[in-house]
Amino acid sequence: MKQQEQWSSKLGFIYATAGTAIGLGAIWKFPYVAGTSGGGAFFLLFMLFTVLIGLPLLIGEFILGRHTGKDAISTYKELAPKSAWKITGWIGVITCFIILSFYSVVGGWSLLYLFHAITGQLSGLTVDQYGERFGEIISNPIPTLGAQLLFIVLTIVVVSKGIQKGIERASKIMMPALFILLIVIAIRSLTLEGAMDGIRFLLLPDMANVSSDTVLFALGQAFFALSLGVSVMVTYSSYVPKTQSLPVSAVSIAVMNVLVALLSGLIIFPGVFTFGLEPSEGPPLIFVVLPAIFEQMVFGELFLIAFFILFVFAALTSAFSMLEIIVATRVKKDIKKRPRVSWAVGLLIFVLGIPACLSYGAMADVNILGRTFFDAADYLASNILMPFGAFLISIFIPLKLSKTALFEELKQGSSVGSKVFIVWYVLLKYVTPIAIIIIFIDAIGIFK
């Protein structure tokens, strides 16, 4: 049995983990959830939850993973043997199954859009025609299933190659390129006619329109965007050497995540108001607005192709982490199993994701509690399982690791003082679980 794999560099870990966090959560999901949940008020709550709840929990998951050096399920087994706490790891694995089953559908859409952009089928259309084209593309079962399968296969190929040669190498290329292109597109979007209306919608909070759903969705987005509550970060940090600063890495990732969400909003919402669309358009938003924005740009077709290449990259970096947490629970330290397990798990996820893929076509009329398979999977994972998993983790860490052990792990590779540690400990032990309980209770209507 070979030794546990590790990231080859601090930057490699940050890029890979940022890729996990940034991905489609920030670029695709943030704009449409913000658009349906109050714009500026949602963004304000999202930032607050990221800093006060997400960041402390992210550091906590990092500590768990590096402290044990094991996958998610094995981590809870080691720290709480012969107890039911291992269910926390299983919740993470199951949630990643569910997320990747519908996430791969969007990844497939991005591949289809890349193909249509390359072949010139996304140029010269009106905004309404872009909306119609989107509907035509995602309702056609054969191409969408084929694209979803291709997306899963690409994910499997990278994860099967391991940490350094697969995930880290790909992330080092994808993430810087993605940042640069997002900045370029945001600058262009801000010159559109309706840019100021879009900026006001995103950055000026109207708290009068905040509902319990807005708060729950903002919390869910903070967890989804940082991949929290599913022990992905526990698994990724198990490959981190003791010389790396966990707080610095966590802050870097949180800042990058908020920045990319902001850039995505500044790209989308000026276009929404310029072209007379509704912010509440939903999941299709980015696929309708972006081609219309590029239509207004010099060399717009080339930029559109470049964007969807990087959009695919962003989707893949997040998919890597979700497949990795599942694969790691089966591979453990025997890396010879990695290729076989990666293919078996990945193909199973594809099969489970078929109903979500057909939710906008052949199975559009099949509902679960009023939601399509796609929307039901998204809601269950993002707004129920991830916050619940985060709640369990926030309870587990101070319960099973002493303050001394936590402080010592946090200090490894960093110069964190006792005051910073106390603030982090209080936020994790008290603020995070209490906030999650209150938001959950309000969302399900007990106080109504």
From TrEMBL:
Q: Which InterPro entries match?
A: Na/ntran_symport, SNS_sf, YocR/YhdH-like
Q: Which CDD domains match?
A: SLC6sbd_Tyt1-Like (cd10336)
PROSITE patterns per UniProt: NA_NEUROTRAN_SYMP_1 (PS00610), NA_NEUROTRAN_SYMP_3 (PS50267)
Can you say where in the cell this protein is located? Membrane
Superkingdom, natural source: Bacteria
* Keyword tags: Membrane, Symport, Transmembrane, Transmembrane helix, Transport
Q: How does it sit in the membrane?
A: Multi-pass membrane protein
Q: Which residues cross the membrane?
A: 12-30, 42-64, 84-106, 145-163, 175-195, 215-236, 248-277, 297-320, 341-364, 384-401, 422-447
Predominant location: membrane
Q: Which PANTHER family match?
A: TRANSPORTER (PTHR42948:SF1)
Q: Which family does it belong to?
A: Belongs to the sodium:neurotransmitter symporter (SNF) (TC 2.A.22) family.
The name this protein carries in UniProt is Transporter
Which species expresses this protein natively? Alkalihalophilus lindianensis
